[in-house]
Amino acid sequence: MDQLDKLETNVRLSVRNPHSESTSAFGRGVADLCLGVREYGSLNAAAKNMGMAYSKAWRIIKDTEAALDIQLLNRDGAHGSELTERGGRLLDAYIAIDARLQAEAQRLFAELGA
């Protein structure tokens, strides 16, 4: 077996606002936080599941919301958080595009004889 056969590709996708001065974007980390909110019902639980401080998760979400000019989460204090309708659509689109990109990159890697 050729050592190249053991390798796989990894494409990094991000969604950004080209009109924003911020460098913040919706990428894998923000997507994982949003998936956690969807699964656990709170940003705090999502952050803990990722081994991240709540304050860091809060800052990441706020910075991304400001950069994209989209509210990702509805927060209800002690009652947790949920994705907004737009946040959910963005997350679903990100997941679908990411899966297709990863599969296509791996297919191309194999096709090109790597």
Summarize the structure.
The protein is mainly alpha-helical and 114 residues long.
3D structure, described in words:
With 114 residues, the protein is mainly α. It has a single domain (25-111), classed as Arc Repressor Mutant, subunit A (Orthogonal Bundle). Helices cover 54% and strands 5% of the residues. It has helices at residues 28-40, 43-49, 54-68, 85-111; strands spanning 73-75, 81-83. Strands 1-2 form a two-stranded antiparallel ribbon. Helix 1 packs across helix 2 and helix 2 (43-49) packs across helix 3 (54-68). The longest helix has 27 residues, at 85-111. It is elongated, with a radius of gyration of 17 Å. The mean pLDDT is 94.
SSE inventory with pairings:
Layout: H1 28-40, H2 43-49, H3 54-68, E1 73-75, E2 81-83, H4 85-111
Antiparallel strand pairs: 1-2
The number of strands is 2
Distance between the termini: 12 Å
Radius of gyration from CA coordinates = 17 Å
Do you know the CATH architecture? Orthogonal Bundle
Order of helices and strands: HHHEEH
Fill in the keyword field for this structure:
114 residues, 54% helix, 4 helices, LysR_HTH_N, LysR family transcriptional regulator, Molybdate_resp_trans_reg
